[in-house]
Amino acid sequence: MFTNKFNIDTNVTKFHTIITAILCMIIIIFVRFSSVFNIFLDQQLFLVLHTIFEILSVLVSFSIFLALYNIYDFTNSIRNVIFANTFYIVGLLDIMHFLSYSGMPMFLTENLSQKATSFWIFARIIMAVGLLCASIFKKETITKVNKRYFILLSTIFTIVLGYLVIYNSSIIPTFFDEKTGLTMTKIVLEYIVMLLLIVSMYVIYKTSKEKNSILTRNMLIAITIAIASEIIFTMYIDVHDSINLLGHVFKVISYFIIFRVLFIENIKDPYRKASEMREQLNNHVIRLEDIAKQKTKEMAIANYKLKNMNNKMLKELDAAKQIQMALVPKKYENHLGIKFYSEYIPWGKLSGDSYKYFKIDEKNLGMFLIDVSGHGVSSAMLTIFADRVLTPFDAEVEEDKEFYLNPKEVLKDFYEVFNESDFPEETHMVMLYGVLNIETSEFTYSSAGLNCNPIHIKNNGEIQLLELKDGFPICKLGSIFVPDYHNETIKLGREDRILFFTDGVIEETNNTKEQYGLSRLKDLIKDKSYLNSKGLLKKICDDLTEFRGEAQMEDDITMYIMDFTKR
User: Nearest to residue 352, comparing CAs of 537, 77, 554?
Assistant: First the structure.
């Protein structure tokens, strides 16, 4: 609605300007050929009216200056600063003009019509030049020059010009003769002013982005009235006649319209646009609030569904955890007289670690320790798969028994089975598989990439790391590489023990990101080797907890001790 009010057809803009020019010409012709205006007013009455009109002009000039000068810091518009300084100079010259008027109290020197007319014509020339210069620049053209420099130059210019008119009038051309009235020089200058104003109108119209804007139209009307004012000022005979006074009326009207245009363009219009934007923003906020309420409602429903799904998943995870825990040995087991003690602390509900010990025949025990990459359901499923493959179903069959007694063959076969499966390409695991012969006290083992050397704890308290030859991890590379696994064998003494563990033990970190480390584990075992296996595992767990402090676990912790005691 506001846009429609402020936008009209371009032809209407031209029409209004032409109508204004015609009306001004009718008035000028009427003034020129009618005896009504060819009268001389009482000097005192004229001075009062003249002073009122000039003060109004000065007030409008300074209003334009102050408005544009004070918004310069926000716009830096060179067009506005030219307008501001033009009307600043014109306002000062208009003050000097009416103070120098014949009949007014002496202003520094004797008041003569020549002095007042000089100030007048210079003010008109400066206004015309200023309007033209300002019209050349677009509103968006900016300058970084400090506004104080502009006002300083304008003040110096005005003071110098005033000094020349007041104290060096001899160098100023004669603009008014007390006997003959206006001189040709003054009349020619008035027509030059008119020409400059006409050029300004053309530039304003051509460079205006919105030729149909009421602001453009009003600026053209204001300049048209100013031109009419200049025509009238070429017609008066005496400085106190009614024609002169009518020219001042036109001048005040022109100034006021220019002020209105510049005020609306630079102050009122931006506030209007800001108000519209604020209203639009409020509408957006209201719409956003409605959307937020709708989304909140939808999120509440979604959260309810997610909560139900989460509860269902948690139940399924608990069931999966029970299945996985059912495959893990108890904390204490005895197989063929050999004691096994274990500690199993999953990182989450499901673990990526797995271990087991089992009877192969009356003389041999098999065992494995596995660390699957990652955590969670996928890793847990791999541990279940490994448990099913590596645990013998019928070791009484001689062929099967011989197979499970050879660790390197077990690992090789497991590698092949794993590669035949449909597990994702990125899955892999490291592990150790071993066999303990109770009669010979020999422990034979083979590693598939396990990076944690088991610790042999001798009955005299000495400790030794089991050698792990570089074994290739169980991974999905069977199509391009077939690894060669190796068996290692050690002889155990009576009451010797072996600690098996995954990297979650030695890679446990505290708040400072320091790792627990193998050295600390070895020192603890050596210092507490007098403890039985159950007590030693508990001591390790307690030390891990104390070391971790407030930090969160980052991996599964799995370890067990094989306590070798001959029957």
Answer: 554
